[in-house]
User: What shape does this take?
Amino acid sequence: MANPGSIELPPDFEDHILAHEGIALMLNNGFKESEALFAKFKDSSPLMSAGSSFVCFMQGLMSFEDDKLEEAVTALKSTQKLCNNAEEDLLDVLKNKFRKKAPKKKPLSIESVLQRRIIVGDCYLYIALIYFIKQDLTGYIKGGWMLRKAWKVYERCHKQIVELLKQHKVELSTTADVGFVNGNGEAGDSIPPELPHSESTSSLSSNEDDIMKEELELPAASSFPSNGTDQKSTLLRLYGAVCFGYGAFNLCVSLIPQNLLRIVNMMGFSGDGVAGMRALQVACDSEDMKAPLAMLCLLWYHTVVRPFFSVDGDVADAGLPEAERLLEINQEKYPTSSLVLFFQGRVRRCKRDVNGALESLQSSYDQAQEQRELQLLCSYEIGWCCIMQLNWERALENIVRLKLESKWSVCYYAYLTALLEGVRGDLKKCQEMMIEVPKLMKRKNNQLEMFVVRKAKVFQKIPPTDEHLKLLIFEIIYLWKAFPNCEEENLKQMLKECENVANPCLKGLKHLILAALYKCLGNTTKAVEYFQSAAQLSESDLEDGHISPFAFYELSIIMLESKHSEQKGVQLLKECKENFSGYDFENRLQMRIHSTELRLKEKNRT
Assistant: This one.
């Protein structure tokens, strides 16, 4: 049954134009207007339903709140249900040839069927990302299964669209040729526009979904409308749509921890970051409604994923030229977009221009007056920038707001609030809040919450001290890979504070932080000395078991930078990967190790 506020679209109405307008509204701070526009037509148009569920997904993604994410999953499944009639409609096309009387219902065109299939694949992809956000084993496995379903849909749609483009004598340019990687995760020297069906996927059952029960033969080109120009532009738009899915799919695979990648490969697919970025760029240049979303995906990858997971090693600004190019060419379309300003802030942060980052993030916050989720996201980034500047007062102001208003990991925000209260001098309030942190834990198998609860419990037995609290803040900055974004004078101040820590129980953590700071300040000799000390001091430390593996990893990265010590670096990386388990943020470090292994593999290949 249609919603009371929904309206039926007129026959032959080009809903992709309206959908594009809805996405543009969202990017230009009109979240409510965009939501209303999509909701108005979501029951009569799969594309408008997809837009409606995507807006819901974005709100959940920005807030990380469980109820918002569940709401998004429900909306995405509703869109899938609307689109799953596509197969029946295509069967009707074939059955009608044998009917004497023409049916009253006009059958869908092949473009509409492909559009619906791609939307179904997109929904699987978004649901997978929601599962990954939960950061637990069950979530990763469910997410991997959803990714497999998305992969199968994109694979078939891409193959069919390319075949139809060939029938219309449309040759894709070299830059637009996008194909899936093979079963081993390798793309080869030249990626063809066709999607080869890998052996790993053909061995798996393909009947788990209604839309994939059988491979349907597509009508010949002669069955298309006579206006070839319109047909070609529609197919090229659909090609952009499937490229968005494939590109975003690869970025999702990049979020899967190394220890689970084997399971993912067994499901029949692998990821390729370079191919994914190329696919997203094709989508970005297309006329599809997801072109602006492809731009956001690329900005997120270049400014968040690449530096956080060390995709380019210690080169924190490797993706910035491309991010700045994307921001520049979209400046005119989205001059005051809160989302675009947010990524401008991320770019400036990665360039160590923290004051400039704060300026952009504050502008993003101000523009998002009607979007609570985006404002909370800005508050988080502003709070982090202030922590990096050692501006405890302003940092506390933003983190407290998150603790009070955000439903995502309240115990993490409570831990940060307690640390900031302590370094401001209110040690009594700090200890009171630390005692409350374990009571706020919601997810017992969540690595972040397990970490902060364990850290907070220490202060149930002993009173906090200024030196201990500052060291714990520096630890958070290090684990969040934020030292490379800090300005030099702030790094030197942290170094001074760290050197003053006299508690012998904190020696292992102290040496890890000192090493990381010396490394950022360019003193490699001191960095190696302290990383080695940290690894030795903490090798049998059950409380802070993450110190040793992180120190081993850092040592391996330094050794890999020199030809003379490269073999030693490879050995240390292997030891770090194989000899440690069950420590805090293991998945995070394993992903960084995996990125390093990929870089080594690429280096040896060339």
Notes: The CA atoms of residues 133 and 273 lie 20 Å apart. Residues 181-229 have pLDDT under 50 and may be disordered. Residues 501-606 form a domain with the Serine Threonine Protein Phosphatase 5, Tetratricopeptide repeat fold (CATH 1.25.40).
